[in-house]
Amino acid sequence: VNVIDVVSGEVVPDRVVDIVDGRIERIIPSDDFSGQTSSKIVAAEGKYLVPGLWDAHVHVFGRSPERTLPLFVAYGVTHVRDLGSTMTDVKKGVALIEGDSLVAAPEVITTGPLLDSVKQSWYGDLQVVVKSTSDVENELQVLNTDQLKVYTNLEPEVYTAIVEWGARNGQPVVGHVPVKVGLNGVVGQRTIEHLDVVTMLSCAPPEGDWFARSLNAKFSEGYAAYFTLMTEFWGALDWTSCEPALGEFAVAGGYLTPTLVMETADASLVAEEAPRFIEAEGRSWCTSQLEKISAVQSATREGAYDSLRQIFNRVRASGVPILAGTDTPNNCLVAGMSLSWELRRLVEFGMTPLEAIQAATIQPARAFEVDAPAIAAGRVADFIMLNGNPLDDINGLANPIGVYTGGAWLDHGTLMDIRKRSQVDRP
User: Fold this and answer.
1) Residue burial 154-169, b: 16+ Cβ < 10 Å; e: rest
2) Which of 217, 247, 280, 399 could form a disulfide with 226 if both were Cys (CB 3.0 to 4.6 A apart)?
């Protein structure tokens, strides 16, 4: 097999990868392999290996995790970060993963519920209201999670108390940029989620009333008005304010998960088979939204996307590392499948295929302080097999033909069986 080093981009050709008890024992030139072994041999001549991928922004535990967890793996996603589930759902999901009922499941980093100072009825139990600094210890001491997710309406003093709590308890703070805190105030937050109005609001002209107008445009006026407004918004940002704030955020160890598939959804991005994996109610909403987006003149839509593309590259130029994340299952996003859409968007927006792959491998590992993924002797075996070289065509990551994770080799037939059984409507 050809082994890809996702740090250097080097392709080491024609190797034999020898795995013993779920760990890579050795990697040798195929000419040095005698062929004599009691182990199972997987024929992989001409194929490519890359480390298992991360989707750094999902909501996996609340909706049919027994169906969606294996589906991530079936598309090569062996690590995810769940950015919003009730503690009840987190505990059930972790128990499901640790049990023996699933054929495969990704490793999961958890944040638990959203932390906000204003109760929003549509979030139900997904939200923990933290209105004062005294609430922080009372509410957070029961959140036995890897990270803490802050939300849009937090009061500045409460936000600061949450960050301090997280630092004391080994729970990095991630999430949105609270409106009253702004980009200048989130230095020390580990990740910012979404490249959207809320994230960049503090360096836009204050008289624009951008957030309220964006909500009204999207949900009342329609997508034509929304795309027009977003083009105006991205063009109005004051980079004498944005750039220093982003630079300080990066220097302090911050990362951005832009979730471009959420911000630039259109029918051309969504795979034809995706609706089969979406439950009926969500599928109807998804279809209607895509139709509304498609009805907008392409020049209007592409104008907004091009404006966002320019902002994305200015964010990158400021030094902020990028994480690949989708916000699955929102909109038309499907577990595992949608990560390839995000990687495609990252490349379309200016990243090289290697940089996009790094956004789904080494960058999440650095951000979350776990072992960097590598296909090397002595490392735990966690990789996917591909027909083609994704450094030449990022779309090659969409359909892995094999996955090794959790001490098991899942061949193409097993991956296809998982996909078939995960469909809500089977053909």
Assistant:
1) bbeebbbbbbebbeee
2) 217
